[in-house]
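Quick one:
INPUT:
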């Protein structure tokens, strides 16, 4: 995949971003989200889970490390936030590899930089969000930037 970008758009344009993710072929096992605090990572993930027919209430897993959700068809979605992790070893200690090695699980990773080496072997879609005011741009790539 080459890099592509959507934006700048406001929150009303998130449907375009979600459609781009949902229509990615082949669909990734891991989707990572990078961007500054307040960039809109969790907001995008909420919209994505709605589009994937997940009825659960989505919240940031910053303190719990991992939140599990299920779509109405039973697909497991693991939403994880690595912001507070010190290094990849600490991530491994949390049991994150069980999710990464489960091909039936969709991983959504906020702040993936700390565990980038753990993602090297995974089929990933990386989304970098930049923002200025209420407008955001979304850079899609197969490499963590």
């Amino acid at each position: 995949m080459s890099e592509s970008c959507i934006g700048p758009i406001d929150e009303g344009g998130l449907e375009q971003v979600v459609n781009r993710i949902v229509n990615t072929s082949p669909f990734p096992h891991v989707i990572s989200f990078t961007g500054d605090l307040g960039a809109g990572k969790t907001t995008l993930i909420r919209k994505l889970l709605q589009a994937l027919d997940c009825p659960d209430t989505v919240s940031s897993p910053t303190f719990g490390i991992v939140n599990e959700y299920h779509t109405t068809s039973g697909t497991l979605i693991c939403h994880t936030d690595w912001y507070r992790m010190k290094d990849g070893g600490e991530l491994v200690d949390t049991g994150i590899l069980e999710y990464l090695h489960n091909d039936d699980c969709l991983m959504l990773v906020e702040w993936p930089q700390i565990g980038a080496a753990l993602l090297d072997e995974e089929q990933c879609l990386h989304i970098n969000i930049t923002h200025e005011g209420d407008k955001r741009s979304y850079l899609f790539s197969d490499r963590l930037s």
